[in-house]
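re: ur question from earlier - yeah i can do the single chain one, its not a big deal. heres the input i used so u can compare w yours
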Amino acid sequence: MTPTETIAAIRADARFQVACDRLRADHDRTVTDVVTLTEIPSPPFGEEKRAAAYLEMLRAHGLEQVEQDEIGNVMGLRRGFGNGDILVVAAHLDTVFPAGTDVRVRREGTKLFAPGVSDDTWSLAVNLAFIRALDAAGIRTRHDLLFVGDVGEEGLGDLRGIRHLFAKGRHRERIRAFLTVDSPEVERIVSGGVGSRRYRVTFRGPGGHSYAAFGLVNPMYAMAEATRALAAVPVPQSPPTTHCVSVVSGGTSINAIANAVTIEVDLRSASAAELERLDTRFLEIVNEAVVTENAARSTASGAITAEIARVGDRPAGETPQGMPIRSLAAAAVAAEGYAPHFEFSSTDANVPMSLGIPALKIGAGGRGGRAHSLEEWLDVEPEESLRGMRTSLAAILALAEMEQVG
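and the output i got, formated as tokens:
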């Protein structure tokens, strides 16, 4: 069957309708779950409390091999009838918001407002709803479904949870495809992983009085030269490639030459080769800035040095056009009347993409906005939410090979 025919057969199956009916009947429960999970803080590198709560939720849903791994991911297996190949269905536990952020949910009509409510806590709740719907309908799949709540997707988490899943996880040898459910909108399918290299560079020098020691090398000038030079680096629009000096800190007083100043830098590209070229050029720029400043001013009290620490390294990758996972996901989206759109982003899917494993980012359903802000919101209006849930559930069943379709 073609992808369109496969999705049509799934949607026409009476068991799929039972599953969709269960999603509808459970909608209030799914909303309750997202509120409960959102109000459990899950800051960067502090996902433990939410992970513990989600582990118990997975256990209550009757999955097999429910566990937490060494890195902090929680997961459970819904066994298929085939040869043990696995389709991962993941959502990330962490948010971008630091410890101490007020994560209480405010409701206005069908909208929920809270940091992290749509990115990605809604997906955690929706994945639980998928499990309940599959069980209620008695749907079996050829492939095992591994439902994962993973850590470290945001920021300097550097995808550590999914890296661990594929590098050291007990199921790694059997994973044949991967879906991360991330954000509400189902029409936006991420098929390309934007890679990144992130650096913290500290320029150091002898420091001194701004007037009395004038003429000594100044790490602030070396930092400024490096920043200016990076800003001048040309990058291609296709594949999309970017650079940014995003954080600057250092110095002690307005009347002192700084003895240390630090920048944090984000380099990105959808192409591994372009990212490598940009990375190489940036490291050259830092060295050139140090040499330039040491030549421009006195090193009598000490020279400028640069300490370079790589603090992030996300692999680039792509699930290319023509792969069945893309065609089936697009067919599921189109079947609900959406216009599927493939795009590049940085998600947990970067890791399997970089390993050549078919992977996508799909949506959980509904609408959301203002992600990564204190006014992040999620609209849980039932019809639009359920429409999106049906879309992603059909895609999951197509990829997991629902029993006796067509």
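The mean pLDDT is 97. not sure if urs matches, ping me
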